[in-house]
Amino acid sequence: MNNFTIDDINNIRSEHAASTRDMSFDEYKADLQQEIKPLFDLLQSMKIEQKAKKTCYPIIEPSVVAEPLTTYQTNN
Hints:
single chain; mainly alpha
């Protein structure tokens, strides 16, 4: 992963603002969907692979354990 400086982030933001300035919301949304589609498809394929590898473990019911109430003797 890259380490961006504050100047890098500000430059990216200004370039993004300039490139999307004249877009309608629907155009912006379609452009965003097109940009994220490859990553989304990759994540979905990884999720399916994990489901295939998943093994079933027996369900263990939790048990409730209580300690007996302690009584103390007092000197009267």
